[in-house]
Amino acid sequence: MSGHALRLLVAVVLLAPAVLGSPPSAAAQEVTYADHVAPIIRERCVTCHREGGAAPMPLLTYEDARPYAPLIRAKVESREMPPWFMDRTMGIQDFVNDPSLTGEEIATIARWVDAGAPPGDLDALPPLELAAWQEAWRLEEEFGRPPDLVLRSIPHAVPPTGQDQWPNQWTRVEGLTEPRWARAVEIKPADAPSGYVFHHMNVRSRSPDGRSQLLSHSNVGKWYDIYPEDTGRLIHPDEELVWDMHFFPLGDREIEAQALLGVWLYPPGYEPDLGSGVEEIFYIDTELPNLTDKLRGQEVMIPPNGYATLQGYHVLDRPLRIHSAQIHMHQRGKSMTLEALYPDGRRELLNRLLHNHRWLTTYVYEEHARPLLPKGTVLILTAQWDNTTGNPNNPDPNQWVFFGRRTVDEMSHMWIGTTWLEEEEYERLVEEREQEVREREIAEAAGG
Predict the structure, then answer these.
(1) pLDDT confidence of 284, banded at 50, 70, 90?
(2) Structure confidence at residue 441 (pLDDT)
(3) Which of 381, 153, 420 is nearest to 284 (CA)?
């Protein structure tokens, strides 16, 4: 999704009332911005609601937030914000990166709006310190340090208007003297203007033996990959990096767009237990050459004012552990489901991922919830599209829609974070998982 597409939200924002009603009563002053709401917004919202962020307006101060108070309430009560487009009614629900507000936090915001959005003691609020866009690595807080390597794409001139831009670039890894295992990688626009034209980006590396592996992919809503603690990604000095980029014109001026790739390394000499744990693309679209072995499916063909459903299958030739999932569709996308048909005949719906073209999230499973799939399991992916007026992202429901790279075309694939396993590794992980379940049941019984 283009950051530019988020401007569609502004039309909704303008509907928010400018007048919040009569002054709050004394009882209602118990909930204030300074004491109760600011901590929530600062922790959950300002990453995007800031200059250069993906959101359409900043929420850094009380003065920023107050005019939007009714809209903020509506968005958090409907759980549209913070963005988390996972079907909560089925499948696995244990994720390490779920940003959803608690019921208590939502109730606090509602009481604040009902009270007339009182400011409280704004002078008592500690200063809000945000790093400049060029320095704001999201993973720096996670690892307590900036990235060990920062690699740059070549600047690309995105014209003021016109069609999507798909430049491919080739650079080399610099700053390494020996092969090192990466613990995590993060992709981000180099500056705020680059962020405004940023659609998505995939970065692959080609090792000295010619193997190409995905380092990471990024889009609005997904910026980094932390590999599972027993895996990593081996990076060689001077190996080739391939930057597969997608930009969309801003509409009023040319932008010199550039991306940065930050890499957090394991200590020298470290060898992960299970080797590489990377994201792989499982396509339903058969129009992409040389990639159909990842999933067998059909053509994307969506009728005017109608719906479409496609399904693809992939048989695992060895055991697999899944640590994350993300879908990629365009403006008519509705959802994709991920299911497992086990060799013993059981069929399990792992998750149904809802699609919102303004925000594409990678859902990272808790360690105990990572699917462990034996050899012979069939992965089943089902994609659904909505080409009707009921889809708020639909630019024109009267058009036939086919596969294509443009935003107005469609596609359907799922990025799945994978660790391929040897049979003994799979059996060990299953045994450890079963032991954890037994211990948890014993602990719960003792506590009861």
Answers:
(1) low
(2) 84
(3) 381
